[in-house]
Amino acid sequence: MNADYAGLFRALLPETHLVVGALLVLTIDMIWARHRPANRHHVALLLGIIALLTAGYAAITSGASGHIYGGMLKLDQLAIATRTAVIVLAALALALLPDSRRMNHPAEFTAILLFATTGFTLMAAANNLLVAFLALELASLSLYVLAGFDKTSPESAEAGLKYFLFGGMAAAFLLFGFSLLYGLTGSLGLEQIATQLVMQGQSPLLVVALVMVLVAFGFKAAAAPFHLWAPDVYQGAPAPAAALIASASKLAGLVLFTRLLWPGLGSAVGTIAHVPVTVGWAPVVALLSGASLLLGNIGALAQTNVRRLLAYSAIAHAGALLLGVIAAGRIGVGPLFYYAATYGLATVGAFGVIAALESAGPVHQLTDLAGLHKRSPLLAGCLAVFILSLAGIPPLAGFFGKFSVFASVLQLGGLAGPVGWLVILAIALSAVALYYYLLILKQALVAAPVADATPVRVTDPAAIALLLAASLIVALGLWPSAVLELF
Amino acid sequence: MSLPVQHLWLIPALPLAAAAVGALTPRSGRTLAAGAAIATMAGAFLLACLALGGALDFPAAHQVLNFAWFDLGATSLRLGLLLDPLTAFMCVMVTFVSLLIFIFSTGYMKADANAKQFFCFLSLFAAAMLGLIIANSLLLLFVCWELVGLASYLLIGFWFHKPAAAAAAKKAFITTRIGDLGFLLGLLWLQDAQGTLLFYDGGHGILESAALANLTHLLPCGLAASTAIGLLIFCGAIGKSGQFPLHVWLPDAMEGPTPVSALIHAATMVAAGVFLIARVYPLMAADQLLANVPVHALTVVAFIGAITALMGALIAVAQNDIKRILAFSTVSQLGYMMLAIGVGSWVAAIFHLLTHAFFKALLFLGAGSVIHAAHHEQDIRRLGGLRPKMKVTFATFAIGMMALSGVPFLFSGFWSKEAILHAAHGWEVSSLPFYAAVLGVVLTAFYMTRLVAEVFYGAPRSDEASHAHENSPAMTVPLVILAACSILFSLLAWPSPWLQHQLDPSAHSESGDMSLVLPSIVLVALGLGAGWAYYGRRPRTKAESPDPLDRYAPGLMAALANRLGFDELYAATVGRLSSGFATLAAFLEVFVWDGAVRFLAGLGELSGLVSRENDEAGFNAGFDAGSKTLRDTGVAYSKAQTGDAHGYLRTLALGFVLLLILVILGGAR
User: Fold this and answer.
1) Contacts of residue B68 in chain A, CB cutoff 8 Å?
2) Which of A211, A229, A298 is nearest residue B634 as measured by Cβ atoms?
3) Which residues contact B434 (CB under 8 A, 6 or more apart)?
4) Cβ–Cβ of A298/B630 closer than 8 Å?
5) pLDDT by residue (tens digit) across B340-352?
6) What is the ipTM for the molecules in this complex?
7) Which of A82, A98, A391, B355 could form a disulfide bond with A102, CB atoms 3.0-4.6 angstroms apart?
8) A332: domain range?
9) CA angle A367–A299–A358, rounded 5-degree value
């Protein structure tokens, strides 16, 4: 291994910005801002956004330089796009930071969010099992803390603990799976593993390793049957944390596992596009996908809590995204990335609307959204864009995400195999999904406000973030090739 | 410093942003809307000047920026931007004239409660017009083409509470749409034949020789394919540029506010047709080398242009409304431009387009100044004697009139008109268009002299005219600037044809040939002298006294005053035909289709009545039950979500084991 430290430093410039930014936020808060409670969260927010912006600039300008530091990292077009996207999503989530009256330690929150983002950006580029695991754990541990950050709320503590327990177990499976892979191939680099596996062929041990890796993947993507944490965590975590878990974490996880599955374990994919099916990881992913589509969409019908509804919608979307993973190897990662990124935007936006509403009172039930169009036209308009995009209504980005993923899956083998049938299932369930999405919009846009409802004041950063997310969704919907042609 | 083609989109984007500001501000925000419109237009003007600088560095090159809009299967729909001297000169002209007219409008629309809407529409128009100019794709051009049509409709009908304005807006929209149908057909044909609509695309664009060679085959009717496509596209230009026989909407469009008439129906939008034909000139000229075809596309263009030029000038002689005279004059001048393209000199056409934009905007704004001062009196018989009261307006209007008439040497119109006459004189196919153009020159000088004499000389012939006074600087300063431009522009043509050379570096210079100058001066002098003899020497004393020409040829004058009866002709033919069709359709609707529908509906009702019970019990209940089952499944399922962390972890482990078993079983098969 040739140790090219200069190249490593250049490649890790975004991460450096993030880490230095996180430390700076903590230091300045300790020395100066702690004694000025009125401005404390402004300072944290400003420094956090600056760190994210500089990191984002560094990520965009880094250039696809290929293997870094002896193949530990791989900076290709996908890595650059994912880094940029997670940084944008993290910035949007950070802008939802509540003011100091309700958030006691804004600087710590910001710093941990930046650490989580560092984890995401590393996940986007990881090309080695060890780096992948470390990045994943950096992100996960930060997210556990963020989920339990609201110390005044028992739900938040419950969310943090459940997320941690579930995540810890998933990480154990992943590590076990990785150690089996290492034992089989004798190497940690994805390319070396791939060449070894091609020579060895399929073995029972490999199958066990595959399933273990996929359990962790299912956890990260909130795919059934490893989704059980999602409703509780989405419900209890502070809104910015939930937004981050639902968007950036999901995108980074998908990219990490796609890179692991296709270039790394591509020889063990199996066939799913035609009958008869042969064994590999693709049939397992298809199983997870089908289960998620069914459970997510049908479970969502019974929800009366907005956040749990979004959690089930996340499970349903995970099912569609897993279909995209199956197609990514032959058709390219473009549709998958586009879907995941625009889904992240819409989810961050939806949680942002909830966060802004929470400044005026608790938001639990769907009926708490009643009369939003009277209380804040801005929030109601943005919510309409996000929810309609989640439901996949053209010309918003959600439609083209679904369209391109389904089209790419159908290119594999048409309706000749289970994966094609899953597309039919997904399209049919979209009709079910429209029902529960419209339940949200019905409350927000049609129902009359309750008698003592007050207008909602939205803070400037949150308003800017929401408008930005909404306009990005519209713009990417009108111009899908801007993203799809990157790959 | 110059603006590269990558940033060309900024030029239309700026006024578009102003239109958005105008649309979003409340009605009281007129200052904001006007300020945004003027500021962005000033910015767009500066950018256009930078773009011109960039274009003139490489006058022979077509700098393009092409990009894919979206993909449909294997077809990629591509749009693009184009920067060449033609685009750049048009951009500078449009932004500059728009800027001055926006400023003028702040004065003209001062009393209108809806002024912010006005500036919003004007900005929208400017954005669409600039987009039309910088398009490198016939499709993008067509989109903007329709957008300027929409803006024109909105602005003609801006005072929609006046029935005449509403009717005029409708007429303009429908009449131009007839031409646009041809344009659209040509566009589709072209896309089908070439697979792209980009003008220039590194050798594959529709205006480049490789693609044009595809279109030289003959159709069953004997025309070359390029001729047919070119003529279809020309239909769009006929409608938009008010050419015979679709010119009827343009005079009526004068119902709109005068700044609109100046900007849209004189300087810019109506010239878009000329611009379009100049832009696709290589396509129009693709059939020139074919000998065995019945007609060439450009020949049709030349004859239509010549007919329009002569007819517009003739009708203008007998009009009495100040704006209608100018409107028919616009029709006539657009005819000259088409004639120039038809005889092969698109450069002369664009030169005349640019000079005409300045002096015609000047004339319309001058007319607007008169109308504003005279409390919306537009009949020249009831005006008069305004010269001492409105000195600035008179002086600038006189400059515009001399530029339009082609008074020699000092005025820009002389040079551009000279270029057109020269080109028409050298046309081998026929000399008729040349003689029509020559006659038009005399008539132009004549009716403009009549207009000035009636409005500014003699005594005021109504209360409105006698109480007129000069307008505020917001209105007079643009007049002065435009007047200065009308004179200064002549420097671009004299002593050397700099502009022509920049537009088309490959064309050979014709500056030395001045053989037509002397006859042309004589013709202009003839027109001016005749006009002065009839109207200036003995000014009209009463509004009711008859026109001097009525005594010589009352029948002809009545026909001309009636605009040669085109409106009546169309009402009696096309209008009658379409209302006949409408009556027939209504008859069929009521008695045939409706009867059939009623019968079927009766059958349906009967069967509905029969099956209603079944339906309620079967299908409907089934669907309801299905939905309920689905919802209940959800409820039942969400009971599994107990919140018990142990249970969750157990499920995770179970899920793992289950998947493992499935995979191993599957592998064993």
Assistant:
1) 481, 485
2) A298
3) B421, B424, B425, B427
4) yes
5) 998 888 888 888 8
6) 0.86
7) A98
8) 5-484
9) 35
